[in-house]
Structures are given as structure tokens and as C-alpha cells.
């Protein structure tokens, strides 16, 4: 029995439509998979970046606690290099606070006390560096800064 | 009569500079006492302490 022409055409059309739908579905799955892969790669990169910064900060913190002054300076420089890294500024600032608490003892306290009492910093125009490779020698005069000067803050 | 002096080490100056920089990055007014100590270090054009 001959198959009517319209049946043949209908079957062919349905087959083509099915094939097209399957292809579209496959493409959609592939696109989703690709997007997921990209997202995963991004997360891995972010994670690696975070780990890298954590390692750097831990390293800097260890250096800052070293008994050796050169190590401490290296630690401070490492921290300073990360100050402007988005998301790290506050953390680095807090760590610097901790280090400053230990390293800037009497000098800072005296200056702060005087400033709180009088509203101006004490009339100290020479700050003397001491240490092995100082860049400033005793007697170098440092311009006293008005704390209310916008340039100073 | 000479003015009183405060003695700070290079580490203290670098630390004060870093703290002042951090405060500015946080858009806070830096501690004037820290600014005073930070200003003890001479810096070159790149902002590093001259050695």
C-alpha cells in the first residue's frame, strides 16, 4: 500500500523538528556547562588569590613579630604594599595598629597625650633616627606639622 | 634653649608612614602624632624612605 504523500511530508517535518529541538537542547546544555566551567574557574582563581594574600599577610605578620628590626621593617613594607588592595585595607590597618602598639611606645604616647591636652603637637622640631642604616642624622630638623593642616591629614 | 627631641627608629618611621597611608586609604584623618613621626623620614620621589 502506498503511503500518502502528505504522511511522508509530515513524518519528515516532525523528524526535522525533533532533530532541531535536540540540537538546540544540546547547545543549551553545552552553553550552561561552559558557563559553569567559567564560574568554577573564576571561583578557583578568587580562592587562589585569597590564599595568596592570606599567605602574604601571615608572612608579613610573622616578620613584624621577629626580634630582628630588619625583618620587622620588611614586614611593615609587605603590609604597606597591600594597603590599597581592595578588601584588605582595613585588615592591614588593624595589623599595623597591633604592630604600632608594640613598636611605637612612649614616643607616640607622649605625643598623643600632649596633643590631647593642648590641641597641638609639642614643639619638637628634631626627630632623631637611631639604628644601623639611618637616613636621618641627629640634628636633622623636621618641619613641625600643624595637625589641623589638611595636608597633614 | 634647645627644643626637646624625640628619638625614633627607622622602623618606627616606616610603621608610622604605613599607618598614616592606611588611614588615608580608609579615608580617615590620620593620627597627628603618627603624622609627626612619619614626617621624620625623608622620602624619595617614589615615597620610600631615603637610605
Condensed summary:
The complex is a heterodimer of chains A (153) and B (51). By secondary structure, chain A is mainly α.
Topology:
The complex is a heterodimer of chains A (153) and B (51).
Chain A: H1 5-64, H2 69-81, H3 89-103, H4 106-118, E1 126-130
Helix pairs in contact in A: 1-2
Chain B: E1 5-9, H1 10-25, H2 32-38
3D architecture notes:
The complex is a heterodimer of chains A (153) and B (51). With 153 residues, chain A is mainly alpha-helical. Chain A contains four helices and one strand. The longest helix of chain A has 60 residues, at 5-64. Chain A is rod-shaped. Chain A starts with a helix and ends in a 23-residue tail after the last strand. In chain A, 15% of the residues are buried. Chain B is mainly alpha-helical. Chain B has a domain at 7-41. Chain B has two helices and one strand, in the order E-H-H. The chains are: A mainly alpha (153), B mainly alpha (51). Chains A and B meet through helix 2, helix 3, helix 4 and strand 1 of A and strand 1, helix 1 and helix 2 of B. Strand 1 (126-130) of chain A pairs parallel with strand 1 (5-9) of chain B, so a sheet runs across the interface.
